[in-house]
Design goal:
This protein is mostly helical. It contains eight helices and two strands; from the N terminus they run ααααββαααα. Residues 107-112 have low confidence and may be disordered.
């Protein structure tokens, strides 16, 4: 195996590890690890937000994607074509807003009050809303042009760390460094495998910055 092939596979591996579907879980862990609402590892108030995030940002979207593939609504599960991304973006943004609603109200619109969610954290509200806004912006752009969701999600993680910092009792410097590295390697991997152009990567960064910032501005009524 040549060096170029090794680098190619490494870049493909990074694209999988830093896939947008996994980034919200990283965001949730950052909040739980750094926020003043910090609970012991294993405490149900620590586990439930992670579980909620995993269900609504990983399990539901994957299940929906498989249904779309089975119905022929998408050509492949890697969503390499611009048009293939539209339906998954609509569905996933709906799941994210549902998660935001549950965290905001401490209840589910179908099954009613969920006592465990009354221990909500406003930082989670901002996170879910920021991811929702980012997905909506991606959807609107994707109607006309393919934009890098990897770049949008990874830079949204950077912005989340930035916005969490003022509310944290812990140093967020390690997470700041890690998030910047994730954003950089994610963008580089997408460029190397020729999944996106540099313009599409930069556009993704812009959408991620705007989307996550809007989420925090909305929840915390921050000045722009």
């Amino acid at each position: 195996m040549s060096l170029q092939q090794v680098i190619q596979r490494f870049a493909q591996g990074l694209s999988i590890v830093f896939h947008p579907i996994f980034i919200p879980m990283a965001m949730a862990y950052v909040i739980l690890d750094t926020s003043p609402f910090r609970y012991p590892l294993g405490d149900y108030r620590f586990v439930v937000p992670l579980l909620l995030t995993g269900i609504f940002t990983i399990i539901y979207p994957i299940f929906m994607l498989l249904i779309c593939r089975g119905l022929g609504l998408v050509k492949s599960v890697d969503l390499s074509e611009r048009r293939d991304r539209i339906v998954p973006y609509i569905a996933t943004s709906s799941f994210i807003f549902w998660a935001y609603f549950m965290m905001r109200k401490g209840s589910d619109p179908v099954i009613g009050q969920i006592d465990i969610l009354t221990y909500h954290n406003p930082l989670f509200e901002a996170m879910y809303l920021g991811v929702f806004f980012t997905l909506v912006l991606l959807l609107l752009c994707t109607l006309f042009w393919k934009v890098s969701a990897h770049s949008a999600s990874s830079v949204a993680l950077v912005l989340l760390v930035y916005h969490v910092a003022p509310y944290s009792n812990e140093s967020v410097l390690p997470w700041c460094i890690a998030s910047v590295l994730i954003a950089g390697f994610s963008a580089a991997s997408r460029l190397y495998v020729k999944a996106h152009s540099i313009e599409q990567v930069i556009a993704g960064w812009f959408l991620g910055i705007v989307g996550m910032s809007l989420g925090f501005y909305w929840v915390f009524d921050l000045a722009i």
